[in-house]
Amino acid sequence: LVITRVKSGATSATSTMKVCYGGHGTNMAVCRIDGKVYIFCGGKAELKDDGSETVSKYTAFFRYVGGATVNLTKDSFTYDGTTYPITYFKKGHNQYPSIDEGNRLFAYRTTGTNDAGTTISNFFVYDLDDVLTNGTNATLLKKVVVTKGEESTGNYGDNGYQTWDHQGWTINGDFIYIGEGVGTWTSTAYNG
């Protein structure tokens, strides 16, 4: 994964950073801590038992350093003679993080199945400062469970919550926003 930093209004990158072993990096978060930019994404990635793909075990957070390469199987990285720590939030498995910097919230999402065998998404919400201070020992503020196929808006083609655990989402205060849409493999849209 290559993270590109672009100044607002610019037409080219100001710097890039390479991230290795971040797993399914389709959801990541960025925030400022003490004036420095930090990235939160999947980390400690490993192959599934069948060898099919690399998945993230935990949420990693580390300082953005333009020009650096970070290996998220390690606990630190060094660039230009300076060593930077990589911190891991180790609750659950296959975590996809989000940050609400304004409300000081950290959240991650996983999927599973309920007792009926239906797919569910679990959203776990924490105080961001508690996570930064206490890491994995931070206190859970709230858990939200959403069942696949529920929460329909009533709009045409909306069959309720259908997304996978690694698709884009974010938290803002008391709301969780999930990026879903109509998938297309050809010029014909699928409204299923």
> Which ranges are low-confidence, i.e. pLDDT below 50, for 5 or more consecutive residues?
none
Rough shape? globular
pLDDT averaged residue by residue: 81
How many runs of DSSP E, i.e. beta strands?
16
Compute the number of helices. Answer: 1
Instruction: Indicate the radius of gyration in whole angstroms.
Output: 18 Å
Spatially, the strands of the biggest sheet line up as: 3-4-7-10-9
Structural class: mainly beta
What percentage of the residues does DSSP assign to strands (E)?
over 45%
What's the story with the biggest beta sheet?
5 strands, antiparallel
Describe the protein in words:
With about 190 residues, the protein is mainly beta. Helix content is about 5%, strand content about 45%. It has 1 helix and 16 strands. The protein has one helix spanning about 130-135, and strands spanning about 1-5, 15-20, 30-35, 35-45, 45, 55, 60-65, 70, 75-80, 80-90, 95-100, 105-115, 120-125, 140-145, 170, 175-180. The strands form 5 sheets. It has a 5-stranded antiparallel β-sheet, with no helix packed on it. A hairpin with a 6-residue loop joins strand 5 and strand 6 (about 55). The protein starts with a strand and ends in a 14-residue tail after the last strand. The relative contact order is 0.13. The mean pLDDT is about 80.
Summary tags:
192 residues, five-stranded antiparallel beta sheet, 1 helix, 4% helix
Short description:
Helices cover 4% and strands 45% of the residues.
List the helices and strands and how they pair.
Layout: E1 2-5, E2 15-20, E3 29-33, E4 36-43, E5 46-47, E6 54-55, E7 58-63, E8 69-71, E9 76-79, E10 82-89, E11 96-100, E12 105-113, E13 119-127, H1 128-134, E14 140-147, E15 169-172, E16 175-178
Parallel strand pairs: 2-8
Antiparallel strand pairs: 1-2, 3-4, 4-7, 5-6, 7-10, 9-10, 11-12, 12-13, 13-14, 15-16
